[in-house]
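Weekly sync notes, structure subgroup
Attendees: PM, AL, DS (notes)

Item 1: joint prediction request from the bench team. They want all two components modeled as one assembly rather than separately. Inputs as received:
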Amino acid sequence: MPGLRERTARTPFHFLGCWELSEVLGRRAYDERELLEHLDEVPLDSIYFHTHSCFLRDRTLPGVYPNDFATWAAIQVRDRVLGEKLGIIDPNDVGDLESLRAEVVSLIDDHLSQLGAVPRVMFGQPFHFMQSRVIDVPTGVKVRTLREFRDALVSADAAVVYVHVVEARGRKGRRRNDFAAWMDEQLGLPELANAVTRLTPFPFGLEAVRRRVIQLCDEALGREQRGIV
Amino acid sequence: MASSEEADVQAPEPTLDDYRTVVQPGTIDMLRRLSERVRGRSLLNVSASREVGGVAETLRGLVPLLDEVGVQSTWDTLEDENGAAAALTARIHNALQGSEERLADDALDELRAFTRRQAASLDLGADVVLTHDALPAGLVEARPPEGHWVWRCHLDVSHPQRRAWSFLRQIVVKYDAAVFSLPAFAQRLPIPQFMIYPAIDPLSDKNRELSAREVDAILERLGVPRDKPILLQVARFDRFKDPLGVIEAYRLVKRQHDCRLVLVGGAESDDPEGMELSADVREAASDDPDLHVLDLPPAARLEVNALQRAATMVFQKSTREGFGLGVAEAMWKSKPVIAGFAGGLTAQVLYNVTGFTVNSVEGAAFRARQLLADPELCRRLGAAGREHVRENFVITRHLGDMLALMVTLLG
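Output from the run, pasted for the record:
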């Protein structure tokens, strides 16, 4: 089998980016009960917007909490307890978006059942429900070797990481992210693929994922150079 | 040293590739790819003025870039008819932004008649027509059968005078979509409502890099010594911008830290409330040599740039605000920002990440003291602010959103 440097994929990896256009749904919540009621009714795209594509909007500076519901509860309502509870949710642990909606709803419901009064924004801003249109944009960059992949990832727009890591699993329902699948299926690197599969932007954002993938590639390439592979 | 006016004339228009120094190179490539989806399609922008205000500033940067990536982009303005349009715009916009002064009965009739006259002299044929704010909104009544029409609202219409909004709403529902700058500004409408943040141009005179020598020379000319930390607010003298609150905060800060306050603002002579406030501000500053009140013209872009770069921190202590892009300008220069909890300021200032949002004079003073005592905190917030702007509030992001809007409408 050729070394990593010479190993060439039969099918190249096409870097795909995206551009997101945000849409206001016209629903707003001033307290946690209203949030709960809207959560039951909004389209799944809105759940996705507030739990997944927030990483596209805060690429290097993920908010204090990793989803919009947690951020609103903690910052605008100043209910840090609910913020903490919502902030720990990792959509990858939940399965599909309907299950994610159910998880968020039951968590807020449970929280409210323990309170005498419904927390409400006093000095903050209401929660505005949104959704988005995500337009896929081929970057034109395609690579066949791990070295080429690593170098292209360094200068790619962070939306590339979003499409191949977040969208691949969150919206397209793939078992693992696109980077890992390609490394395994096309380059025959199951160990590297396993490590990349485990990467998620929750809670540290897309740039953290990019940095870690590059680091893992460098380690794999460095190991080979040192004759460890 | 070049004055602002000279610099405007001499500076070549930046091309999209010039922004590779500002954003990730991959972003520019992706914008070009995205533009392929709408290459050759036409986009007509119609605004009230080509010279004055934030809309004109935005379009001055955006239209050439849209053209460069292959969108046939044109920009028409409405004929002012001897100043009548500017006065009408001010009245309508004040009413839409919730001013307490009641809109006179004749204003809406006047607006309707004005738009009708203008429609006759404009070629409104384009794949996408974008009208900006209230004055050209009524052009939709004359829309040709082809083309998608979008109303772009840059105003904070979250608490409009009911009569003014009710009038405008009847017009807006004839559009295919509306675009607002913040979710809070959106209204209950039966058409899709998109949200696009406004943006700054990092290569414009207001935001481009300046050498230390340029900054020193400009501040010397403005009479602002650099011997102490500078606290700055750039905002017209309007009670919602709370310049007197900023002076109070500065005086609380001054008890512990020797510093200067620079207020850059001014008021129009036809705005009695603003003139009165301006006099109050000058009165408050009259016995304090460390308090500088500068009335700069709109063309003084380099001067504002230099002041923001010289400042230790920047205030935007508004109690009510539209989007407040001055905050993005300051953050682009790596300055921590102390901002009121209002409008678009909360989208720009991430608490304890890029600055602080505050709800009171005391809050502003407390955070200013904290920043003056902790240069490392200033550095951390400033660096994060610059990155936040790079990702969300620069013109390339705005360009991408416009292209995405066209793709969405045209399929």
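Discussion: Residues 375-392 of chain B form the longest helix (18 residues).
Action: AL to compare against the crosslinking data before next sync.
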